[in-house]
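anyone seen this seq b4? input:
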Amino acid sequence: MPRKRILSETEKRELISLPNTDQEIIWWYTLSEDDIIFIRNSTRGKINQLRLSIQLCYMRYPGISLAINERPDQKILNYVADQLQIDNSNWENYHSGPNESRYDHINIVRKRYNYQNFTISHHKNCVDKLRDSALQTDKGFILARELMNILREQRILLPSMSVIERICAEAVTKAEKEIYSLLSSSLTKDQKYALERLLITGQQYSVSTFNWLMQSPAAANPKHILIHLSKLKVIKKLSLPLDLGKHVHLNYLSKMAREGKQMTSQHLSDFEQNRKYATLIAVLLEIRETITDEIIEIHDTIMNSLFKDAKNKQNRPSDHIGVQNGQLF
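predicted toks r here
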């Protein structure tokens, strides 16, 4: 089964992008006095001190170590070098010359600042930490940004973007299952049976009751108000709990309703039980609200039409009387 994709390529690039403005660079890459003392005491040679400081800065933000042969962003390099009063024009690759290796610098920073690599043991913990947020939104970008901030706060170096996406996708899947269970567990056996009946297409009708409920009127007239009232009666007869859906974030209710409206009754019938009932509930809650709004709108349209007709009829007799009066005088 293919992995769930919840991040676009553009979002991935944005999440891992480096600060660009002077204000951002100053915020993230200003070295403290203790940092500078540590850097100068931990390694010899100005080029090694500069490389060590760059690894420290990249670990702080975006939360990674500089890759082999990767040259740091020039703005960041200039700013860090200025703080250390080092000429950065002789920046070289880690593998060249007698200089200390990239791994030496990474290990020095990790030991001093307690940074650690992301491991499989962190995976489940990260999914759990995203639970509350995932119950409010399924937007991968929002969840990934929160996850990356959590890892930075804990001084855990970021894993690959594919791992970050997988963690967020798992958090969303767990949240969805929790929401399905929450909505479904509020129903009695009879209510579940009644919801199942909505999906059945009877011999006398070409559509199921569920599809009929989703149909909107083509025009505003008294007949459609009666149809809408009939639909509200069907929904009311289900006797759904009054607080149903109150503990589920509107983002998820709207998403489930949107998905449910795009499904046929047969497709909904094939859903896993909890997901099926939860989707039906979300659609019915939205239909009930929409129908109520449409009844008010149709009523206003009809009343405005009646008012205009009455006004026109009132004006016509007045004109006729005026003519008669003109003939008399």
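The chain has 16 helices and no strands. Residues 273-328 form the longest helix (56 residues). kinda curious what u guys think
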